[in-house]
Amino acid sequence: MQKLGDLNSIVNVLSSLEPQYIIILPHVRTDPDALGCSAGLANLLMQLSHKVEIIVDEEPDQKLKYIYEDSPLNVFSKEFLKKMEKPDLIIYLDHHSEKRLNQRIEIPHLYPQTQIMIIDHHLIEAEEKEKFYNQKEFKNRKIDVWIDKNRSSVSEMIGEIFLSMNLHGEKQIIFDRATSISLLAGIYGDTGGLRYSNTTSRSYFVCSKLMRDDISIDKISDPIFANKNLNQIRMISKIFENAELNSQGNLIWYGVTQEFLDENNGNQDDLEGVCSQLREIENIDLAILFREIDANDIRINLRSNENFDCAELARFFGGGGHIRASGMTIKNQGTLKEVMQLVIHKASELMANKQSH
Ligand SMILES: [Mn+2]
């Protein structure tokens, strides 16, 4: 499904809310977009006199602190849950399912009647609209949704909400410097610095409204794309050295074991962006990075070009995402080696099907 709900309905709901307590739940393992859109929306809601808290699942990557440093961001814990008041509204950002809340799933379960709003740009797995709204997790609640896979990022969507509220609202909402930085970082993160095919004229339009003379764009892009430490680059070079290719030379993959990370003093954060880099190699249609989280828990990143729909491959294994960037987690289905075989086999089959059509 391409789209569910729209900008106007979300703007109408947001502009008619009485001041209330709102919590924002971005997806687990936050990236620049998840952090940027959360910080941006929190700022907008605070300008409308709401009390807002962003609750993340785990401490975000410290390199990305500049995206949310002025925001009411909390890391989830049992203690936090105990002290938490009943929210009037729960907002899911950059995802559309309680599956991506991880431990924070307790929050909507603790408040089964609280209204939910969802703003997202990931493909919807359910085929029909009805199916989506009738899910158990949304039962007995009012739910407002805007999901559009043609938006580059949720940060872009939040930018649009700001602009639209200013056109129609009575109260002037401003992009302050911190908000501009948050949203630009989110758009940059999901578009690879306005380089990926999801970049549209709308992305450039929103960026043009966000950019200011007191922002230096390298301060936004370097922490996302550069600023890698030498140790990390040395480890990545080993991944490139040992990555495997299929016989046609259009599929590349590598499996990162825990042992490999330990030997190289690396961690999972160091692997962010590596799959995209593998995809940038000439002739590669699909890049797959397997990561052994533990013996029975394998996380998989997928990146492709216009010749392959990697969301289809991800959905086959219970994951999801975008046509050119998706992922999945495979638990209790075998060792890293076995999972690699399974996924490479399915990927090759889908690639062969595509060629024969
Ligand atoms: Mn996103």
Account of the 3D structure:
- This protein is 41% helix and 19% strand.
- The protein has 357 residues and is α/β, with parallel strands linked by helices.
- It has two domains: 3-224, inorganic pyrophosphatase (n-terminal core), CATH 3.90.1640; 230-356, Diaminopimelate Epimerase, Chain A, domain 1 (Roll), CATH 3.10.310.
- The strands form two sheets. Strands 1-7-6-5-2-3-4 form a seven-stranded mixed beta sheet, covered by helices on one side. Strands 8-9-10-11-13-12 form a six-stranded mixed beta sheet.
- β10 and β11 (297-304) form a beta hairpin.
- α2 runs parallel beside α7.
- The longest helix has 21 residues, at 336-356.
- The chain starts with a strand and ends with a helix.
- Bound molecules: manganese (II) ion (MN).
- The site of manganese (II) ion has 6 residues, from loops.
Query: In percent terms, what proportion of residues is strand?
Result: 15-25%
Number of helices: 15
CATH top level of the largest domain is: Alpha Beta
Q: Give the overall shape.
A: globular
> Runs with pLDDT <50, length 5+?
none
N-to-C span? 23 Å
Helix coverage percent of residues? 40-55%
- Biggest sheet: strand arrangement: 1-7-6-5-2-3-4
Instruction: Please count the beta strands (DSSP E, at least 2 residues each).
Output: 13
**CA radius of gyration:** 20 Å
The total tally of domains equals 2
User: What would the average pLDDT be, to the nearest integer?
Assistant: 94
Going by helix content, strand content and strand pairing, the class is alpha/beta
**What pattern of helices and strands is seen along the backbone?**
EHEHEHEHEHEHEHHHHHEEHHEEHEEH
Tell me which CATH architecture of the largest domain applies here: Alpha-Beta Complex
Name given to the CATH homologous superfamily of the largest domain: inorganic pyrophosphatase (n-terminal core)
Ligands: manganese (II) ion
The CATH topology of the largest domain is inorganic pyrophosphatase (n-terminal core)
Main sheet makeup: 7 strands, mixed
